[in-house]
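User: I'll paste a sequence; please echo it back and then give the predicted structure.

Assistant: Echoing your sequence first, then the prediction.
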Amino acid sequence: MKRTYKWILPTLMLATLSFSACKQEPVVPAGPSTVDEGLWTLDAWMDTTVRPGDDFDMYCNGTWWQTADPGEFGLNSFFEKDLLSISQEYLKDVMNSSFGLKLMPLATTAFDTSERSAARMAKAVDMVNGATTVEELWHVMGKLMKEGYKTPFHLHTFASHGNLCPTFNASNGSDFVGSDLDIKKIIRREQMRSQRGAFRMMTGEPRETPKPIAETNWPMFSAMCSELGLDPALTYTINDIGDQSDWDHMDDPQIFNKLQAMDLDQLRTEVLRWLELDRACYDATVYESVDKASQTLMITLLVPITPLYSNYLNYTNSYYVAKQRGWTSAQGNEIKQFCNELRDAFRERIQANTWVSEAGKSMIINKLDNLQMNIFAPDRWMENGVADIDTCTTFYSAVLNIRANHYDFVRSLQGMPRSEAAFLALIDSYMSLTSVNACYAANFNGIFIMPVMCSSEMYDPAVNMALNYAHFAVCCHEIGHGFDSSGSQYGPDGTVGNFWASDVDKQEFERRVQMVVEHYSKMQMRNGQFIDGEKTKVENTADIVGLNIAYQAYCKYLTKNGYTGDQLKLQKQRFFRGYAHLFHSKYALETLTEMMGKDTHSPYPARINGPVAQIDDWYELFDVKEGDKMYIAPENRIKIW
């Protein structure tokens, strides 16, 4: 799942304000109960020697955990194994498409065409050296981007007042790798680096309402806009959208200010340094420590997963896999109906909420009603977003074409309504349809659920419905991000603007979020480390909200379909056990330590035990009592939405 978030909640007061997910159920007449005949296989995963109230994760998953291997990257989980295998099948379609079959041979012969590639690089160097003023060099940087050369900048798209707008942000660095030859580490590092950067841009807390370049003092970007064909009145910089201070995908959090302040010689040196990063496309001397066969192998392996793909080819990948498999947006209709059912449950929870003012409820529900559901595939494709390398004869020329196409596509999106093009913009700039992911984009006020997350592993009418509802707590998690401490800074159309009706509402929300911080900060993982509750508060909040929404929706389903007595209790128990299945995991200790240092999500065991302990019904269903390790007194259980 998207790795970029945080989460939070005095005592007797909460006992009065609390509400349980299923308190609103109508009374069901006595009679024979419905029985769910759907497939249920999770009993074999259980370790019943563990009390549910001591460690719900191990109670549900302990037998599986005892024999599981941590796996290639030190983590064995539903997302890393089951869903990733589906994604890899989709990627095979991309590599077997006309685009992939053209790109891969160019990559494997990159070193044989180095002279021609070097000539293309020389053209860019001449452009930089030919500039006689700083202002002229700013224009040259725009021309270089337009032609696909590497510069300190990258273009993404976000929404402002409901329309799509390009934004300059700092580049991720090289689209390839230098001397680090550990392929597995490279793959993992580059995937996480590019994803963190992208999601921070979408969901990062804004400093203030951003202003377009035309209204700010950015002559450097005004010059570049003129060369790229961008409207300065619709174009922004990342500085004005979110806080850069801890964005580890950037070389320097103040890079824009420093670049604009450079004199001609300083700026020329910097631009030439960025061009030099592309030598890995064709220059064998970059890999002096290995032979040519290994060089070719490394380039071949890295092409599909380096930032070249995550920054520039998500849209092309998505287009080809959709074309190969005949995907259309209609295939997501069943999931979309299911998600609308979950949204209805969230609306009911807000209406029943006792700590938000009536005016506040109206504002929150308005944002919820304007939440855009982007599921499975876009309604339509814009052909100009698909990279064209048919005429390319070298790998480097293909790279230039790919980047130039991306920038041209961003330009074509500017000014389009988010309702028409948000899915296209997100795919182009952030993730592919092959991604194992669902996300909430604050500046689009939309959730995006990729096909892998719609697969039968996630939702299958043939399995017990408790499992389907529990798995789609992931979707509810993403909906919840629109109403957490970060998402609440964006309005119904994705524009920066507080949705709180009063300071009283906001302060009460923040108090409850602080309870999330304190709760998770007390949770110790197997490596002996405690969770950083402040760093993970957004994600933890979304987990708690998501589980509550999914459980309320499932309770409604059970009531509507006539479940009573022991069957009702059994299915509710299976819901929580299904949720534990969603986040089952086994970490290598070094991987756990590394992820706790970087990830804004809590480790998977905490994503199980943390949220379930906040729901009153869980205590009754699993006979959790005072004295159990996970027990929380009713007045201290966290109730947000």
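The longest helix spans residues 537-560. Residues 98 and 320 are 8 Å apart (CA to CA).
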